[in-house]
Amino acid sequence: MLLAVFAKAPEPGKVKTRLCPPLTHEEAATLYAAFLGDTLERLGAHARARGIGLVVAHDGEERVFRPLAPPGARFLRQRGEGLAARLRNFFEDASAGGGGPVVVVGSDAPTLPLDRVEAAFAALAAGRAAAICPDEGGGYCLIGLSRPCPALFEGVEMGSPRVAEQTRERAERAGIALAVLEPWHDVDTPEDLSRLAAELRDSPVEAPRTRTALRALGVEARCPAGRPPA
C-alpha cells in the first residue's frame, strides 16, 4: 500500500493563483508551501503508524520538496500534460511494483481528516476498484485505486466543477466499482481561505505552518467571510 501527496513547486504565479487578489503571488506561494508542509507531516506520521509508504509525487526538482517531506518519504516526479494525465501516469508508475492499493491526496486541503484516508483504504480493501473524496467545489481532494484505471481520467475536465461528477460517470460507463466518500473542503478561493482560518482558530486540528502563515498574512481581515466549517 502507498499513500501519496500530489505536490506542486511553491513558486509565485504558479500556485493558488485564484487567491490573488487579495493575496500577492508571493504570499500565495508562501501559504501553499505551508499547506504542503502540514499535509506531508500529517500524512507522513499516519503512514508510519500504519506501516505504509509515503510518496511525494512532485512536478519540479526533488531538492525543492525534500525539506518539506518527512524522513523516509519517496519521491516520484509527475509526468504527462495536464492533471488527468499526471494522475493516470502516477497510478501506473506506483502500481508497477505490485504494491497494492494507492491513495493520492491533494495539497490544497491541509485539514483533510485522516478518517477519509482510512475510509479510502478500507473501501479498496473491501473490493472497490476506486474511491474518491469529493470537495465542495465539484472536484475531489483524494482519489484511491486498487489497480490502474485509466478510464477514470479520460476526458475529465480537471479544474472544473464537474470533475467528481464526470469521474462517477466514467466509473459507471467502464464498470469500475467506485466508492464516494463523505466530502471535505479544499482551498481555492478567498472565501475558502477565510473559512480555513476560522476552522483552525476554533478546532484542534494540527496544521502549525498553515496557522502561522494565516496569522502572518492577516487573512481574516483581508478575505471575505466564508461558510462555517462543516
CATH architecture: Alpha-Beta Complex
Order of strands, main sheet, comes to 3-2-1-4-6-5-7
The CATH topology is given as: Spore Coat Polysaccharide Biosynthesis Protein SpsA, Chain A
Mean pLDDT: 93
| Helical proportion, percent range | 40-55%
**Element order, helices and strands?**
EHEHEHEHEEHEHHH
How does the overall form come out from the CA principal axes? globular
β-strand amount: 5-15%
Total strand count, please? Answer: 7
How many strands, which pairing sense, and closed or not: the largest β-sheet?
A: 7 strands, mixed
Termini separation? 30 Å
Q: What kind of assembly state do the chains in view correspond to?
A: single chain
Looking at CATH, the homologous superfamily is Spore Coat Polysaccharide Biosynthesis Protein SpsA, Chain A
Q: What number of domains? A: 1
CATH class: Alpha Beta
Structural class: alpha/beta
Radius of gyration: 17 Å
The unreliable regions are 226-230
How many helix segments?
A: 8
Descriptive account of the structure:
- The protein is an alpha/beta fold and 230 residues long.
- 41% of the residues lie in helices and 15% in strands.
- A seven-stranded mixed beta sheet has the order 3-2-1-4-6-5-7, with helices on both faces.
- β5 and β6 form a beta hairpin.
- α1 packs antiparallel against α7.
- The radius of gyration is 17 Å and the shape is globular.
- The C terminus is likely disordered.
Question: What does the secondary structure layout of this molecule look like, with pairings?
Answer:
Blueprint (H helix, E strand, L loop, with lengths): L1 E6 L17 H26 L2 E6 L3 H4 L8 E4 L5 H13 L6 E4 L8 H12 L4 E5 L5 E6 L17 H12 L3 E3 L9 H13 L5 H10 L1 H4 L8
Parallel strand pairs: 1-2, 1-4, 2-3, 5-7
Antiparallel strand pairs: 4-6, 5-6
Helix pairs in contact: 1-7
